[in-house]
Amino acid sequence: MNIPNRITLSRIFLIPIFIVLLAVPFEWGSWSIGENTLPVSHFIAALIFIIASTTDWVDGYYARKHNLVTNLGKFLDPMADKLLVSAALILLVEIGTAPAWIVIIIISREFAVTGLRLVAAGEGVVLAAGQMGKLKTVLQIVAISALLLHDYPFSYLGLPFGLITLYLALAVTVVSGVDYFIKNWHVMRDSK
């Protein structure tokens, strides 16, 4: 197993730790930040999420630079991303910082695009992510990170930065999903 795939696996192994930190009510204390309170466990979960999200860029960069792109990596990398983001969004609903309807739309879009990619793969066609899809991913990561940090440092300004960014992520997620289907509808139309 090459280094990029090991990095991707490390991201997958961080997900259960991240889940436990948010799902179990640890009494490790909290910090007051502006009008909000940031539990220590949420801060640690945010750090793990940010580190795991960063490994997505690192493994892809390393794989391309050293020509180490493998079929295993093509399978693991998007799966790791979807698992991490989905787990984070669902747990944000659980702790009451993200609206469930937004999370449902974002996760539904991911399932739909994954389904289209599976149909394309069955036809021998590889559908790469476009620039709008990459922007969607960045906005989702920024929104999730801000919500996990209870809007720190923006909470000192009384600015709901995480929620604003989540709405932006939702808009780009929907638009990029529609765009992706329009550009690649021929795969569904021509499938056997």
From TrEMBL:
Keywords: Cell membrane, Lipid biosynthesis, Lipid metabolism, Membrane, Phospholipid biosynthesis, Phospholipid metabolism, Transferase, Transmembrane, Transmembrane helix. One of its GO terms (biological process) is glycerophospholipid biosynthetic process. Signal peptide: none annotated. It is an enzyme of class 2 (transferase). This is CDP-diacylglycerol--glycerol-3-phosphate 3-phosphatidyltransferase. Belongs to the CDP-alcohol phosphatidyltransferase class-I family. The keyword Transferase applies. It catalyses: a CDP-1,2-diacyl-sn-glycerol + sn-glycerol 3-phosphate = a 1,2-diacyl-sn-glycero-3-phospho-(1'-sn-glycero-3'-phosphate) + CMP + H(+). Its main location: membrane. InterPro entries: CDP-alcohol_PTase-I, CDP-OH_P_trans, CDP-OH_PTrfase_TM_dom, CDP_ALCOHOL_P_TRANSF_CS, Phosphatidylglycerol_P_synth. This protein catalyzes the committed step to the synthesis of the acidic phospholipids. The lineage of its organism: Bacteria, Bacillati, Bacillota, Bacilli, Bacillales. Its EC number is 2.7.8.5. GO terms for molecular function: CDP-diacylglycerol-glycerol-3-phosphate 3-phosphatidyltransferase activity.
